[in-house]
Amino acid sequence: MQLKIFDDKMAMSKGAAEYVASSLRRIIGANGRARIVAATGAAQFDFLDALTSAPGIQWDAVEMFHLDEYVGVSPAHPASFQKFLLDRLINKTGITKHHLLNPGENPHEVAEKVGRELNSAPIDLSIVGIGENGHLAFNDPPADFETEKPYLIVDLDEACRRQQVGEGWFKSLDEVPRQAISMSVRQILRAKEIVAIVPDSRKAQAVKSCFEGPISPLAPASILRTHSNATIYLDKNSSALLTPDATLVG
């Protein structure tokens, strides 16, 4: 695992986008296609703006999978991650092969169906974020580090739900769903490469806990330290609590 720290959020987002764009060109050039997992949330805004503007990516050769989605939220709701991906990635690039999680009335059936498609071939690149509580996807602490299932139905803890209110996706805690479909921790780790994009001071304690504390289900994203090809993109604010010798400045 490697940490890369940038002066500010925009520089971090552009640096991550340049790297991901280069990886996609390389993967498609070698394999004729790229299978990716895409994250959502406020941390991804600037990154996706930069990535979707990058030249030379053959987007019709990209197959995209969805990292997580609320249970009980309409696909048209402003907080829907399906809507987020359609607006900010799929419709901007013309990706035609995508597997969105639409829980509907039977989230377990959807999780199994998309999970089978996900496991039909290796994932080349997973793009993820880290929550204020250290969650990876919607695997809140204590996360399940053991299950082999590709997707889980998970309960969202209060810290996670408060983050969604703080970011403006919902008006109150009562509006935030209590469950979600989430890609499992082990499934995320199966990707050949992982890029995590983690800006802002509100993530600083989670960054310190995950990358300087023990690898533990209580700090779910700490598991990224076990992956041989994971890069964590931070800005000065999100990295503020790290000790200087723990960082690699990018």
**Low-pLDDT regions:** none
Distance between the termini: 14 Å
Looking at the structure, the CATH topology is: Rossmann fold
Strand arrangement across the biggest beta sheet: 1-10-9-6-2-3-5
**Major beta sheet, specifics?**
7 strands, parallel
Do you know the CATH architecture? 3-Layer(aba) Sandwich
What is the CATH C level class, in words? Alpha Beta
E-strand count = 10
- What percentage of the residues does DSSP assign to strands (E)? 15-25%
Structural class: alpha/beta
Shape: globular
Radius of gyration: 17 Å
- Helix count equals 7
Q: Give me the strand/helix succession.
A: EHEHEEHEHEEHEHEHE
Number of domains: 1
The chain-level mean pLDDT equals 94
Query: Roughly how much helix do the residues carry, as a percent range?
Result: 25-40%
Could you describe the 3D structure shown?
- The chain is α/β, with parallel strands linked by helices and 250 residues long.
- The chain has one domain: Rossmann fold (3-Layer(aba) Sandwich), CATH 3.40.50.
- 32% of the residues lie in helices and 19% in strands.
- The strands form 2 sheets. A 7-stranded parallel β-sheet has the order 1-10-9-6-2-3-5, with helices on both faces. The chain has a 3-stranded antiparallel β-sheet with strand order 4-8-7.
- The radius of gyration is 17 Å and the shape is globular.
- The model has no long low-confidence stretch (mean pLDDT 94).
